[in-house]
Amino acid sequence: MRAIAEDVGGLSQGSNAEIIRRLLRYMRPFNGIMVVSLVTRVIKFLSQAALLGIAAASVGIYVESSQPGTVNWDVIWQQVRWIALVGTIVGFASYIENYTGHYVAFRILAEFRDKFYYAMLPLAPARTAKLQSGDAVSRVMTDCERVEPFYAHTIAPAVSAIFVPIFILAWCWTVHPSFVWVLAPFYLAMTVVLPWLVGKLGGDGVRYREQLGVVNAFVADSIQGVRDTVAFGYEKERARSLWNIGATMQAGQDKLYGADATQKALSEIFCTVGILAAAWWGVELALQGAIRPLIDLPAIIAVSVVGFYTSQGLANNYTDFRVSLIAARRLFGMMDQPPAVRDQARDREVSASEPALSFRDVHFEYDADDEAWSRKKKVFDHFSLDIPAGRRVALVGPSGTGKSTIVNLLLRQWDPQAGDIRIGNRRLADFPLHELQRQFAVVSQRSYIFNETVRENIRMGQYDATQEEIEEAAKKAGLHDWLVAQPKGYDTPAGERGTSLSGGQRQRVAIARAILKNSPVVLLDEATSSLDVETEQGVMQALRRLCEGRTTLTIAHRLSTIVDSDEILVMIEGRIAERGTHEQLMELGGWYARMFAIQQDEVDATLKH
Amino acid sequence: MLGVDDRLITPATMKWVKVGLVAGLASIPTTILLYYVLGIAVDAASEGSNLLSDWFFVLAGLVLLKAALAWIFRTGQFRASGEAKINVRDRIYQQVVRLGPGILGKRRTGEIANTATEGVEYLDYYFSVYFVQIWVAIAIPLFLCAAIFWIDWVLGLWMLAGVPLTPLFVGSSARGFRRISKRNEEVKNRNSAQYLDSIQGMTTLKMFNQAERRGKEMEDGNEAQRRTTMKLLLVAQSQFVFLELGFALFSTAVAMGVALYRWSGGFMTPGECVAVVLLSLEFSRTLLLVGEFFFAGALGREVAAKVIEFLNDKAPILSSGTRKSDRAAGKPVTIELRNVTFVYPGAEVPAVRDFSMTLVPNETVALIGRSGSGKTTITNLLLRTIEAQSGDILIDGVSARELSLEWLREQISLVPQDPFLFYGTIADNLRMAKANATDEELVAACRAAELYDFIRSTPDGLNTKVGDQGLALSGGQAQRLAIARALLKGAPIVILDEPTSQIDVETETLLNRALERLTRDKTVLLIAHRLSTIEQADRIVVMEGGGLAEAGTKAELLASGGIYAGMIRTKRAMESRTSAVAPQLA
C-alpha cells in the first residue's frame, strides 16, 4: 500500500518540457481533431468578445441615431439580430469545441492505457510484482486518469490564451493602434509571467505527492493493522500520530495551494488593472477626439473584459496541469524500467528438445541492483540441479528457501546473474520467449483466474481449441460434470479473480487450462496448498492426469501429497540438502522425516468427521 | 446550513468554509462596482472628463480589495478541505477502531484503507467546490438583479425573469450530466475491471502467450465503448449548447434592448446602459461555476457518501465500565466464558453458540476446531472487540462489561498467527506494546524471543526497517517479533494462535523456546494446530460449528471416544499407512 508507483518504478527524471513533449507524442494521431477543437475554441471566445462588444457599441449607435422620448425599434431589432447571429456562432463553436475536445480526451485516455499495458508486458512480473495487488493497480489507473486534464483542460486553454489576445489586440489596433501598447503588457503578464511565478512559488508539487504517499501508507497501515493495534491498546497513540502526520502534510499542501491562492489574487490584479488601463486610455483618446466615446470606448472596454476572462481560464487550470505532469512522471517512470529479461534468441523457431531440466552453477539474487540492504535477497549461489525427462520430481523445504524461484527462473521471469539453465541441451536464453512459454504448463497456489466465463479461462491454454477439446480438458480436470450442471454451463462466469468459484474449482480450471496447453513440462507450485485436506484429495486426482507422461516438478508444502514422487528434493537455504525417494528420506531421518512427522501431527490433517 | 453530515465537518472546517463563502459573496459587489464605474466613466467621457483619473485612489482600493477577496476565497477553500481531510481520516480511523477487527475482517480493511487514502483526496472538490461555489453561483444573479434594479427598476424586473434560468439550467444539465455520467461510469467500470484483470493477471497471460491477443481485445473493447459514449455526448451536449446560447442571448440581448428602450424614456444614461451590458456577462459566470460544480463535485460527493455510509455502520456496543480488578498487577487471572452467544451483524448462524469455558490461573487450555468453528471469534470476544449478544465473560469473577476496556486489554497479550508489523523500525514495532520501553528492555525482550541474534546481524540493529507489512522479515522472524512484543507487554493472559508448520526445523526450536518463556506463569489460551502442542496443554476444548463439542483433559477425552480421540486414531492410521508405503514401492 506504500506509494506503490514510486516503489515499482520511481519517478521519471527529466525536465517538465521533456515530459510534455512525450505526452504530446501520444496526441499525434489526433492532431487534426485537436486543431479543430482549438480553432473552434478560439472562434468561441472571439465571438463572445464580439457579442459583448456589439452590445456595448449598440449604445452609441442607438443614441446617435435616435432622439430621447421616441423609441427607435428598428435599431434595437437590428442590433438584437446581430447579437443573435454572433450568439449562434458562440453556441455552435462551443458545441464543436466540446465535442472534439472530449473525443480527443477519451481517445487519448484509452490509447494511453493501451500503451501502458503494452509497456508493462515485458516488465511482468519481475518489475511489476507489487502490481499484483488490486490496490496498486487502481492507483495506477487513477494516475492514468490524472493525465487526462493535460489533454482536455491544458492544451486548449493554453493555445486560446495565446491566440485570443492576439486577435483581440489586432482588433484594438484597428480602433486605435495605441491600445496594443496599453493592453499587451497585461496579456503578457497573464499568459507568461503568472504561470512562471506560480511555478516558482509552489514548486513542482513532487514533494507534496511524496508526503501524500507517506500519509497514505501510514493510514493504510493503521487500518490494516487494526487487530494488533487494538490488542496492544495502541490505538490512541496511533490516532495521534495519524493526526500529526496529516498536519505535517498539510503544511506542504499549504505551499502548493498557497501559490494557487496567490496566483488567483495576482490574476485578479492583472485583469482588473488591465481593464481599467484600457478604459482609462480609451477615455483619454475619446477626450482627444481620436475615438468615438459612445461606440468605440464601450466596445474596447467590453472586448478587453472578455479577453482577460480567457486568460484567467488558463491560470485556473494550472494546478491541474501540474498534477497531471506528476502523474505522467510516475507512469513514465514505471514504463521506462529496463525489463528483467530480454528476448535474445536468434532463431525464431526451434526444434523440439528433450524435456529434461538442468541448472548449472546458478547464482541468483532478487533485486540485485537494489541498494537497500533489506530488499536484497540472495537465493542461489552455485546451485545445480538435474531433472531427467519424464521424471516426476518433488521439491520441498522451508518457505523462503528458493523453491518458487526455480519456477520463476525456468519461466524466465527473472534471469540468473550467473550460471546456465537448460531444457534438454538448449539454453533457456536460446528459446524465443513465446517458444519457452510453450514448454511449461504451470499450476500455482493462486492460479490467476480471469473475470470471464469458465470457458474463456480454460481456452487460455490454447486459444483455438474446439469445444470438444475444451470439454475433454475439463473432464480430465474433473470440472465437466459440475459445469454442465450449472445453468449457464461452460459460460458460467468466474467472477473477479475467480471469486465466484470455490478454491477447488479454481484450481481445476487452472488444471484444465494446463491440460489444454499440452506442454512437455508441468510445474506445480503449491498447487493444492490453499485447499483443505478433503478438497485436496480430489484435485490431486486431476493433477495426476495432467502430469501423466510429462516431466513434472512439484513444489509442495503438504508432504503427504508428494510421497509417491519418483524423487524428492529437500531444499534448504538455496541448496539441495536431501535427495531420494520418500523411504530413503524417512530413513535418513533429516528435515524431511522430521517435517513429515510434524505434519502428521497437524490438527487439520487429523480433524475428520 | 450545508446540509451535510456533521461528522465530516469540524468547527475549523466550518470556519474556513464561511471565510471562503463570505469572500466569494463579497467579491460579487466589487465586480458590479467595477462595471458600474466603467459605465459612468463612459458618461463622464462624453461630458469631457476622465472619471477614472479622478477616482484613481478609489479604483486602486477596488483592485486591491478584489485581489484580497480572491486570495481569501481560494485560501478559505483549501484550508477548509485541508482541515476536513485530516478530520475525515481521523473519523474513519476511529470508526475502524470502534468496529474492530472482529467486525471488519481482512477484505474490508483493504477497501476502507483505499477510501481513507485515495478517496479522501477527492474531498477537496467536495469542500471547496460543492460547499462554497454553489452558494456563490446562486447569489450572483440575485446580486446582479439587485444592482440593475437600483440602476433602473424596469430593467431590473426584466433581468429578474432570467434568474429562474439558473435553476432551470442546473436542473436540466444535472439530469443530462447524470445520464452521461452514469453511462460513462458503467463504461468506465467495465473497462477498468477488464484492465485491472489484465494487469493483475499479466504474468498468467504471458505464460499462455495470450498477452498480445488480450491487448487487442481490450483495444477493441475500448474503441466500441468510446463510440457509444461519444454518441451519448453528441446528444446530451446539445442541451448545453442551447442553454449557453439561450443564456447569452437572453441576458445580453435583453439587457441591451431594454436598456436602450429605457434610455429613450430618459430613465437611463448611455453609460448606465454600457454598465448593464457588461453586467450581463456576469450572468454567464454562474454557468461556469455550476459546470465545475457538477463535474468535479460529483467525485467528491461519491466519496463523501461512501465515507458516511461507513461511519453509519453500527459499531458493537461495548458497555464501558470503569472498574479494574483489585487483584495485584501481574498476578495470574481466572477467565470464565458463560453461555456466550455471538452472531455477526448480517449473519444468520451464530459464530459462537452458548459457549462456556473456564481458564484458571497458570492453566494452558488448547482450543481446537476446524477453520470457521469460532476460534477467532472467541479471541475477539475476549479482547472485547465484539460484544456477545447473550452470556457473559468474567475476569476474576467480575463481568467484563463492568471492567474498563483499557484495563481489560492491558491484561491480554495476543500472538497472532500472522502478526501485522507496521512499516517502521523493529523498535517501533516493539514499542507499540510499551511506549516508554528503554532500549535495554527491548533487547531483553528480543533475547527472550530468540530474535536478538538476527537483529545483531543486521547493520541497523533495532533500527532496522521492517518493510511493507513486515515483508523483509521471514515468517519465523515476524513470529518471534510478535512474541517479543507480547513479552514486553507482560500481560497475565496470553492468547496464542499457534504458528503452522511452514517453517524450518531450526526456527521451530527457537520459536518453541521463545513461546515457553512467554507462557510461563501465565493463563494461556492456545489456539492449537498440532496434536503434540495440544498434548502439552492442561486441558483441551474442541469447538464445532460455534459450539462446545467436548472439553476435558487429554486422558478424559481419549476415554470418551469423541472428536479428539478420533484425531489421535487418524494420526496413528496415517503413520502406519506411510510406513506401509515403503514395502509397496520397493
> Which bin fits the share of residues in helices of chain A?
55-70%
**What's the CATH class of the largest domain in chain B, please?**
Mainly Alpha
What is the terminal separation of chain B in angstroms? Answer: 85 Å
What do the pLDDT scores of chain B average to? 83
Q: Main sheet of chain A? A: 6 strands, mixed
Please identify the oligomeric state: heterodimer
For CATH, the homologous superfamily of the largest domain in chain B is named as ABC transporter type 1, transmembrane domain
The total strand number of chain A stands at 10
**Which stretches of chain B are poorly predicted, pLDDT < 50 over at least 5 residues?**
582-586
Largest sheet of chain B: 6 strands, mixed
CATH level 1 class label of the largest domain in chain A: Mainly Alpha
Q: Please name the two chains that share the biggest interface, counting residues whose Cβ lies under 8 Å from a Cβ on the partner chain.
A: A-B, 172 and 170 residues
Low-confidence stretches of chain A: 1-9
User: Major sheet of chain B: order of its strands?
Assistant: 6-9-10-3-11-12
Beta-strand content bin of chain B: 5-15%
Number of domains of chain B: 3
Order of strands, main sheet of chain A, comes to 6-7-8-3-9-10
Q: Strand tally of chain B, please? A: 12
- CATH fold type of the largest domain in chain A: ABC transporter transmembrane region fold
